[in-house]
Design a protein that fits this description.
Strand order of the largest sheet: 3-2-1-4-5-6
Order of helices and strands: HEEEHHHEEEHEHHEEEHEHEEEEHEE
Structural class: alpha+beta
Number of domains: 2
Number of helices: 10
């Protein structure tokens, strides 16, 4: 074994083979995740914590026909592997039959995607502290704001394998930085973030400048009557709303009449125009802005999959079980989500707006109507009035009722697509900023 906490391909495969050799089940699946993570957290313009974790997690799933059970451990010794296999077998024999159990996948071919960067893997605590200091120094010098942020970087390896020859292995690195800045008078808040597997692509200084500037600009907000307005949603706000579509893109839900993509009279809306022709949404682990995992949790290979193209619904997500039942091809569970963008910056979108509202991000989204993907939520951390191509006032936050499908049918312009630092759905996500008409703000919020 190597001295690194992150397992090599050979080390991971050896553990899979040990479990298979011990197993007496009809089928056994193994998952191993080894990683190291470092973080720094700060608030009130000072560092509060800094630390790192190293761990490895092993999951063993044993199956006897349609009965299966999983046991997990973070002990990778031979004795622990044997114990986990035996415990999963005992539990599996007691489990109820799974009516949707599927046979294991055999050996697969996966795309070679580079998502490991030494610039991130070799980071030190000092490197993370220097990045945090951009925000702390800027906030301290401003004198009227307080910064709170979290920066976490990691490196790891994930491997899955089974007793019929499937084995997948991926090394990856990650860097994620989120920053909230509040004004000391309690009236203004700004937010900015960045995410990339390559540390050299994460601009901590730019994150600090954006959050501080937005906080100071958002002081003493005024109330604007709720209603329908032209809106410019920054990329983060678009991701918060538009990625919700992926929760409803399951073919089974549509076929069973439980989806916004159900066709009146039966069937689904694949092949029909559902949003503005400028909208194309796809998954692609090899996209340079995504660099995602090229296989799903079952080991299904993932390539480029187009869900909406030029406004037309092209396909839905088919699990292996539902694809077999319907005589379709399984798509696998996508791990990435991207909406293609335009060439304009947010500043360009603002300049072209006579009157509208700029929204930094959305928060606390909750479902209202699954048939239309209608959600309610709040604006947060910087909401502004636009008049004659310029930001003129900071606005109090709004509650809204909106559907990503409605917004994507009301597009006036698309901004540049950018990688997001996280949404409520998670995963590797890239979204553009959007200018849309008739966004439905339903009431005012007291929250800053």
């Amino acid at each position: 074994m190597s001295t690194s906490p992150i397992l090599t391909r050979d080390e991971a495969e050896a553990i899979v083979q040990k479990a298979i050799k011990i197993s007496k089940a009809d089928a056994v699946d193994v998952q191993i995740n080894s990683y190291t993570r470092g973080n720094i957290r700060f608030a009130d313009n000072q560092v509060s914590t800094s630390g790192s974790t190293t761990d490895a997690q092993l999951g063993i799933q044993s199956a006897f026909g349609p009965k299966h059970a999983v046991v997990t451990t973070n002990d990778l010794s031979d004795e622990s592997i044997k114990r986990a296999v035996e415990q999963s077998e005992r539990i599996a024999r007691l489990a109820p039959d799974d009516p949707e159990s599927m046979p294991q996948l055999g050996a697969q071919q996966y795309s070679a995607i580079t998502s490991w960067f030494d610039s991130t893997a070799n980071l030190t605590a000092d490197d993370r502290a220097k990045a945090a200091l951009y925000a702390l120094d800027k906030a301290r010098k401003a004198g009227d704001v307080k910064a709170a942020g979290y920066l976490v970087t990691g490196a790891g390896a994930l491997a899955i394998g089974n007793s019929t020859g499937m084995f997948a292995y991926r090394r990856n690195t990650s860097a994620n930085y989120t920053l909230t800045v509040r004004t000391t008078d309690g009236t203004g808040s700004g937010w900015a973030a960045a995410d990339h597997p390559d540390w050299t692509q994460l601009d901590a200084e730019n994150v600090a400048s954006r959050a501080v500037d937005k906080a100071r600009a958002s002081r003493t907000p005024v109330a604007l009557e709720p209603g329908r307005y032209t809106v410019i949603l920054e990329a983060q706000a678009v991701g918060d709303l538009v990625q919700l579509i992926s929760n409803y893109a399951d073919a089974r839900s549509a076929d069973e009449g439980r989806s916004p993509f159900v066709k009146q009279g039966g069937g689904n809306k694949v092949g029909e125009k559902i949003v503005d022709p400028r909208v194309t949404i796809f998954s692609d682990p090899a996209d340079p802005q995504l660099l995602g995992q090229p296989w799903d949790f079952e080991g299904m290979p993932l390539g480029r999959q187009v869900w909406i193209e030029n406004g037309v619904l092209k396909q839905l997500i088919y699990s292996r079980f539902w694809a077999k039942k319907q005589g379709k091809t399984a798509t696998g569970g996508p791990t990435t989500f991207k909406m293609a963008g335009g060439s304009e910056s947010v500043d360009d979108l603002i300049k072209g707006t006579t009157r509208g509202i700029l929204v930094t991000r959305l928060w606390y989204l909750r479902e209202v109507d699954p048939r239309t993907i209608l959600y309610t939520g709040l604006t947060r951390d910087g909401t502004f009035l636009i008049e004659n191509g310029k930001i003129t006032k900071s606005l109090r936050n709004f509650r809204f009722n909106e559907s990503p499908l409605f917004v994507l049918n009301n597009i006036e312009a698309l901004g540049k697509a950018e990688r997001l630092a996280g949404t409520e759905q998670g995963g590797d996500v890239v979204m553009p900023s959007i200018k849309a008409k008739d966004f439905n703000f339903t009431s005012l919020s007291e929250a800053v």
